[in-house]
Write a structure and sequence with these properties.
By secondary structure, the protein is mainly α. It folds into three domains: 121 residues, no CATH class; 78 residues, no CATH class; 71 residues, no CATH class. 48% of the residues lie in helices and 1% in strands. It has a two-stranded antiparallel sheet. The chain is globular, with a radius of gyration of 25 Å. The two termini are 36 Å apart.
Length: 302
């Protein structure tokens, strides 16, 4: 396995930003993409819609007004899909009004793209692209022809036998390392681990992280501290601040003062330095984290 891992790592290191953009263009079938026109938008019906087509996003979500900011749009400087998704999550709502408006437009402090549905869809597309990249790297490595012949000769009975050999508590890694596992199934499982090494949440990704951690211990020694995330850690003023978003005059406020909002549910801004800030209930904080997963992720990074 060492030679296989080194081949994949060497291939991935050779990818520059242009190479990654080219791979994404192949995945997204760039030749079929069409520019979204703000004048008229034709929504294709009665057929499956392509998540790599820029027209699909404004057709399915009202958050993409006139198609602005939709992934895979033609631009002078192409953006990777993950770069576009991160830009959407980190963008701030613009606010402006016309002189003839009776009431000034007030933009929402929270980003309109920070919704569980949109995050799930964008994350699903990014996950499939990572899976495609890993599969391309796995089948393009040296020696895969022999593995391909082995996989092609695998039958349904071989996989059924493997299910009876492995236990329900076993993972793909432990099942692939069993000595009584059929060689064909062992090859298939190892190929799957190699193809999913960059996909978060998979056994291949967890195995890669363990390898990286072991290598770090050998090179720099064991860590002097460890972090154990807990669900109770979300009961923090920073999570509330990340969920509410910045106020209109956040750049003018003193973030050491307690300032209550005029809404029915008191939301405080500028209270991070207080010794006993007024916080919502623990149940409400759990509801906030469930409704805004980005706030919890940003809090973990901070």
């Amino acid at each position: 396995m060492q030679s296989l891992i080194l081949d994949v790592q060497a291939t991935s290191r050779s990818f520059d930003r242009n190479a990654l953009a080219e791979v994404e263009s192949f995945i997204a079938q760039g030749d079929r993409r069409k520019t979204v026109s703000p004048m008229a938008l034709a929504i294709p019906t009665e057929k499956p819609m392509n998540s790599f087509d820029a027209r699909t996003w404004p057709a399915c979500f009202t958050e993409w007004w006139f198609g602005d900011g939709a992934p895979n749009l033609h631009s002078q400087r192409p953006m990777l899909f993950e770069e576009c998704a991160q830009r959407l999550f980190d963008s701030e709502e613009m606010e402006y009004s016309m002189p003839t408006d009776e009431a000034q437009y007030v933009a929402s402090a929270r980003n309109r793209f920070v919704k569980p549905e949109i995050i799930a869809v964008l994350g699903g597309v990014a996950r499939r692209m990572k899976m495609s990249r890993g599969t391309r790297a796995a089948i393009g490595r040296k020696g895969f022809d022999a593995d391909l012949k082995t996989l092609a000769n695998s039958t349904y009975e071989d996989f059924l036998e493997a299910m009876h050999i492995s236990t329900p508590e076993e993972s793909i890694v432990s099942a692939a390392n069993r000595s009584d596992m059929p060689p064909k199934i062992r090859t298939a499982l190892r190929t799957l681990l190699l193809s999913t090494s960059a996909v978060p949440g998979t056994e291949g990704r967890k195995k890669k992280l363990r390898y990286n951690g072991h290598a770090n211990n050998l090179l720099w020694g064991p860590p002097s501290f460890f972090n154990t995330p807990s669900f109770a850690d979300t009961y923090d003023p920073i999570v509330k601040l990340l969920h509410d978003g910045p106020s209109r005059d956040a750049h003018l406020r003193d973030y050491g003062r307690c300032v209550a909002s005029s809404s029915s549910t008191p939301t405080l801004e500028g209270y991070l330095s207080t010794s006993a800030p007024r916080m919502p209930s623990l149940r409400r904080m759990h509801e906030i984290v469930a409704a805004n997963p980005r706030a919890q992720a940003r809090f973990s990074y901070l």
